[in-house]
Structure formats: C-alpha cells, structure tokens
C-alpha cells in the first residue's frame, strides 16, 4: 500500500524553505513551538463548548436544587448561549489590535473566577444567572482569538490543515460535555464547575508560561521570542522589525465597514445557514433516541460519539485537501488565491444536505437505528467540511483582522442556531419530521449559491477592498 501524500500535522506547521530569491519565511517560531501554540489554543477552545454542554444534562437536577420552574432553569442556558454568541465581537477586535495573549489572560481569568464561584457559593438563582453570564463572557474569546493565533503563525497554503486541528477543541466540547456531566453523580452538581475550574486553570498556566505573543503587528514573525518558556506579562511591547499594517482601533465603525465587505458577509451567512440546519439535527437527536427508540441516558451520551467522529474526520480530511489544492493554485497562478478553493465546499454542502434529508425521513419512518446514525454522520461530516473552509477563508480575506472576521462568522452561526432551536419543534409539529428536515436540508442550496458567487466574483471584490482600505 502506498503511503498517503496528505500533509500531516508536522507538515502543516513546518515552514517550507523559500526559493533563494525569497529567503524570509512566514514565521520565525520553530516547528516545535508552533505545534505547542496550536495545542494550547486548541485546548483552550475546548473550554467554552464544554461549559455549555456539560451543564445541559443536569437541568432537571438544577431545577430541583434551585427550586425554580423549567422556564427559569432553561433561561440559564439561553443567556449563556446569547453571551457566548455576541461577546467574541468584543474580545476579537481588541485581540487584533492589542495582542492575542492579553485577551487570553483577561478573558480566561473571568472564566475561572465564574466557575470557582459557581462551585462554592450557596444555591441562588440570581447568582446562577450572573455567574453563567460571566462564565460565557470569559469562555467566548477563544474561538475567534485562537483562529487569529493560527493565522499569525501559519502561512495560507498550510493554514487549512492547522485550522482543522484547532477546530477539534470546539468540536469535542459538545460531544464530551454530556459524557463529562456524569461526574456529578449522586446530585453532586458542583463538581462540574470544580472540574471546569481545574482544567481552566491548567490552560491558564500554559498560556502564562508557554504561549508567546503572536500578533504580527507587535512581534512580526516572532524573531525576538526565544526559548520555550515566556515571562508572564499582560501587555506586549512592539518588537516587530518588519513593517506590518497597524490594525484599526476597535469601534462600531470598524464592524460596520467589515459587514459591508461582501465576501466576509457571504461567507458568514453560508456558515450560518448550514449550522442552523445542522443544529436542528443536534437538538432533536437525543430526544429521538430516548423517546422513539427507548435508549437510556448512558446510551444516548455514547451515541454522540457518532457526530463527534463525523465532525473530527470531516474537519481533518477537508483541511488536508484544502491545503493540497492551495499548493496547486500557487503553482498555477504564482500566488495564493483563496477563492479558487471554494469549489470544494459544494461537495461538503451536498453531503450535509443528503444527511439531513435522510435523517428526517429515517426518523419519520422509524427505521432501524443504523441508518439514523449514518445520516447524522453525513450531516456532521459535511457541516464541518464546509466550516473548515469557511473559517480558513475568514482568516485570509484581506481585512487584516482575522480574529474579528472569525468572530463575525461565529455570531452569524450562533444566531442561526438560536433561531433554529426556537422554531424546530413548531415546524415538526406542523409538517412532520421528514418534510421539516427536507426544508432544513435544502437550505444548503442557498449555501451552494453563495459559493458560486464567491467563486465568480470573490477575488475581484477582495482586491477592490484591499485597494480602498
């Protein structure tokens, strides 16, 4: 059997020597340090989604402990998701301006503090609401700021694979969260917040002593950062010897300007539409398994391994394939043109659409469980396939603010998920499971239309934006 020529993680992070006439590499960080940075930001990315999902299986217990209604305890989930969706806009814009590490240190401090207080303060519903908001505010930064860190140290032709590894953190959170909630046995619900405090503190120490600043405006390619250990400091002075454009100071005007950047807006909408349809699968999956097929809590939790494997494999496979296409594009055109890779997203959208439509009709016809698992796998595989391409493009689309771009994409994604969760039950009750997910699946046709527009006009729009910046 021949060895696969797909790039491995070492290759994705390794700086490929430039031709003699181009001796300057994209990043001066050693291969080992780039892998360490990738590991730390991926581990940090695991915290937020885990915090949201480790909590959900305990809602009936928490309702009894806090002596409140179902609506009130469910609202603690809603406020977490709302803050988690919007807060990255605040963190990301400052990370693009003042430094990545500063934002990691500040935001994760709030996260650890919130979890510590949740683990020890008396049960009070008002305190629960306030601390869940603080918990979400602190955890929300890492997805967008982490993508910015990856963009700082990984050249575009290697970046999709690096992004695919980074996304494993946020993708594993929703899968492992419900399983990890089993540590709250015998009603010991405070242990979930104690656990989050412990792993959050581990990540925090790694960031303090092992994670260097990577913002290119401040440190350039990282030439001045030597050794594996770094001295903890809240703010990084500018040491860059090369001239990198100064990022704009955060303001509402900057966000308005970015939202008028058509490729960024279309890419974010594409991700939002796709995640809205997949979220319909995600939130009905457990109920289908327990009510329609009689699975218990353990069996349902283990069943989430299926979409977990789908998302991880789809992410890694798409990342490697995107980078192989980038290499071919550079050979053919002499430069990296990110829009040339968008044709690959059509495949992911079709796979996801097939999975969602199939899931709906398998549930309605009450088939054997095996076809349902297969369809959920296809829906997750296609969704994350597209998500890797979208996230990579958001770090490349010429605004000079990769973390802010990814944050805008995340807002679109989370807002779409919130709308999907609000309407899915009503839609199913009116037209049935099969037709509901046929409609959700065919929303991906809008995504295919967006991809075709970006393939045709994206490069020109991006170049015009660069000229008028």
Automatic annotation (TrEMBL):
Keyword Transmembrane part of the UniProt annotation: yes
Example GO BP: lipid homeostasis
Main subcellular location: membrane
GO CC annotations, alphabetized: membrane raft; plasma membrane; prospore membrane
CDD domains given in the database record: MFS_Tpo1_MDR_like
Membrane-spanning residues: 36-56, 68-91, 103-123, 129-151, 163-185, 191-211, 258-281, 301-322, 342-361, 367-388, 433-455
This protein's UniProt keywords: Membrane, Transmembrane, Transmembrane helix, Transport
Compartment list: Membrane
GO MF, one example: amine transmembrane transporter activity
Pfam families, per database record: MFS_1
Keyword Isomerase: no
Cross-referenced SUPFAM superfamilies: MFS general substrate transporter (SSF103473)
Domain Major facilitator superfamily (MFS) profile: 37-459
PANTHER family: DITYROSINE TRANSPORTER 1, MAJOR FACILITATOR SUPERFAMILY
Job of this protein: MFS antiporter that does not display functional linkage as drug transporter and performs functions that significantly affect biofilm development and virulence. No substrate for transport has been identified yet, but plays an important role in the growth in the host.
Name under which the protein is recorded: Dityrosine transporter A(Acid, azole) Q(Quinidine) Resistance
Species of the source: Scheffersomyces stipitis (strain ATCC 58785 / CBS 6054 / NBRC 10063 / NRRL Y-11545) (Yeast)
């Amino acid at each position: 059997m021949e060895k696969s020529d797909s790039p491995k993680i070492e290759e994705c992070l390794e700086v490929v020597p430039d031709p003699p006439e181009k001796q300057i590499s994209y990043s001066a960080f050693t291969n080992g340090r780039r892998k360490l940075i990738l590991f730390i930001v991926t581990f940090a990315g695991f915290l937020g989604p885990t915090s949201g999902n480790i909590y959900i299986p305990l809602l009936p217990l928490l309702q009894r402990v806090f002596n409140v209604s179902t609506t009130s305890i469910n609202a603690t989930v809603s406020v977490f998701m709302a803050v988690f969706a919007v807060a990255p806009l605040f963190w990301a814009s400052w990370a693009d301006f003042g430094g990545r590490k500063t934002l990691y240190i500040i935001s994760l401090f709030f996260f650890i503090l919130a979890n510590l207080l949740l683990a020890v303060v008396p049960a009070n519903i008002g305190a629960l609401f306030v601390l869940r908001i603080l918990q979400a505010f602190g955890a929300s930064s890492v997805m967008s700021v982490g993508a910015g860190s990856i963009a700082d140290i990984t050249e575009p032709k290697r970046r999709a694979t690096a992004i695919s590894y980074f996304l494993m953190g946020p993708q594993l959170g929703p899968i492992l969260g419900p399983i990890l909630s089993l540590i709250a046995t015998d009603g010991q619900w405070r242990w979930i917040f104690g656990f989050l405090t412990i792993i959050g503190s581990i990540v925090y120490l790694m960031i303090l002593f092992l994670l260097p600043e990577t913002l290119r405006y401040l440190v350039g390619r990282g030439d001045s950062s030597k050794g594996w250990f770094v001295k903890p400091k809240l703010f990084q002075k500018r040491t860059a010897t090369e001239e990198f454009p100064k990022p704009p100071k955060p303001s509402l005007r900057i966000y308005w300007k970015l939202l008028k950047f058509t490729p960024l807006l279309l890419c974010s909408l594409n991700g939002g539409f796709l995640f809205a349809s997949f979220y319909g699968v995600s939130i009905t999956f457990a109920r289908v398994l327990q009510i329609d097929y009689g699975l218990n809590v353990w069996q349902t939790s283990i069943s989430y391994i299926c979409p977990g494997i789908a998302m991880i494999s789809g992410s890694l496979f798409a990342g490697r394939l995107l980078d192989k296409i980038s290499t071919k594009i550079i050979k053919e055109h002499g430069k990296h043109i990110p829009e040339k890779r968008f044709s690959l997203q059509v495949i992911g959208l079709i796979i996801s659409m097939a999975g969602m439509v199939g899931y709906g009709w398998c549930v309605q016809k009450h088939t054997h469980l095996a076809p349902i698992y297969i369809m959920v796998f296809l829906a997750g595989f296609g969704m994350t396939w597209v998500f890797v391409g979208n996230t990579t493009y958001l770090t490349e689309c010429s605004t000079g603010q990769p973390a802010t771009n990814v944050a805008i994409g995340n807002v679109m994604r989370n807002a779409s998920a919130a709308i999907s969760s609000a309407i899915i039950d009503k839609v199913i009750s009116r037209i049935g499971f099969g037709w509901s997910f046929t409609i959700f699946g065919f929303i991906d046709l809008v995504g295919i239309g967006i991809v075709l527009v970006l393939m045709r006009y994206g490069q020109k729009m991006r170049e015009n934006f660069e000229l008028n910046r």
